Amino acid sequence: MSGIWVLIEHRRGEIREISYEMLGKGRMVSEKLNQELSAVILSSDAKAYVDKVKKYAPKILTIEDKQLENYNALTYQAVLSALATEKAPSLILMGHTSYGMDLAPRVSAGLKWPLASDCIDVEVVDGTIEAVRRMYSDKVNARIGFRGAKNSLVTVRPGSFPAEIEAAYDGEVVSAPSPLTAEIQARKFIEFLEAAAGEVDITRADILVSVGRGIGDAENIPLAEALAQALGATLSCSRPVVDKKWLPKERQVGTSGKTVKPKVYIALGISGAFQHVAGMKNSGTIIAVNKDPKAPIFTVAQYGIVDDLLKVLPALTEKAKALRA
């Protein structure tokens, strides 16, 4: 058999955004290879997720088992490997998240299928699947082939593709029995720990106001915070701001921070080094403020202001307050 599989990542009853991103890319690959796209759901109650993905794929493969209620690499590996051995998909896509980084190498080693990890694209070239990943601190894009392998796995960096828009599917649900015959004891899920109070998940923000070295000093951070508050936005930053300990690591955008994809990204005093741009280039609308007209950030921004950030910020804040009022 053959086909393109997207492993649906879910947590506490919610499907993660990366799953919709991979469904979009999976559909493109499946159409070029003339193979069927399938969303794969492993859960204790797959029905809870079926309605959320059935418009995105023509087929939904489900396996239910009480041991799949929460992610566990050992149970998921056993189940996914058994299903893949039986049906032999051409490609399995997983998110390059803590979930995928843990699971994909285990499945790859067990099945002896090649794996390309942390990829930013998946393409079909002359009828074969190729993956694209960044190397040398994101300075070089490497194209990876699988040497004629019939089956392969790819983990995809979150934010690399737009989330799939609902297609005209009404996915056929195919349920398979769980291959688990005994409870796995070597590793167990204990509990889900919420982020500590005060921590912020910038990956979930619709609007980000992001500050860079150009903010000048920690004493000027409140100017950016005021703009963020006026816009109902979340404050984020580039690496130099974290290195100077002006903002915590959880706020950092970029290859050594977090990949974000807000509807609006406002870059304040950020030069636009490729490490930072890689983490935010897929934002809906990018607005940059920098006094250097040649700053690389302007090459990815749809709107830009060339001026002193400390003069522009108060004016933007007052305008935002007036519009919201």
Would you give an account of this structure?
This protein has 2 domains: 4-176, Rossmann fold (3-Layer(aba) Sandwich); 202-324, TPP-binding domain (Rossmann fold). Strand 4, helix 2 (47-53) and strand 5 form a beta-alpha-beta unit. It is of the alpha/beta class. The chain contains 8 helices and 16 strands. It is elongated, with a radius of gyration of 22 Å. The model has no long low-confidence stretch (mean pLDDT 91). The strands form 3 sheets. Strands 9-8-7-10-6-1-4-5-11 form a 9-stranded mixed β-sheet, sandwiched between helices. It has helices spanning 17-33, 47-53, 73-87, 98-111, 221-231, 239-243, 274-277, 309-324; strands at residues 4-7, 10-11, 14-15, 37-43, 59-64, 91-95, 115-125, 128-135, 140-144, 152-156, 172-176, 207-211, 234-237, 264-268, 285-289, 303-305. Helix 3 (73-87) packs across helix 4 and helix 5 (221-231) packs parallel to helix 8.
Give the overall shape, derived from the CA principal axes: elongated
H-E order: EEEHEHEHEHEEEEEEHEHEHEEH
Q: How confident is the prediction overall: mean pLDDT?
A: 91
What topology, given as strand order, has the largest sheet? 9-8-7-10-6-1-4-5-11
Strand residue content: 25-35%
CATH topology of the largest domain: Rossmann fold
Number of helices: 8
What is the helix content? 25-40%
What's the alpha carbon Rg, rounded to whole Å? Answer: 22 Å
The main sheet comes to: 9 strands, mixed
CATH class of the largest domain: Alpha Beta
CATH architecture of the largest domain: 3-Layer(aba) Sandwich
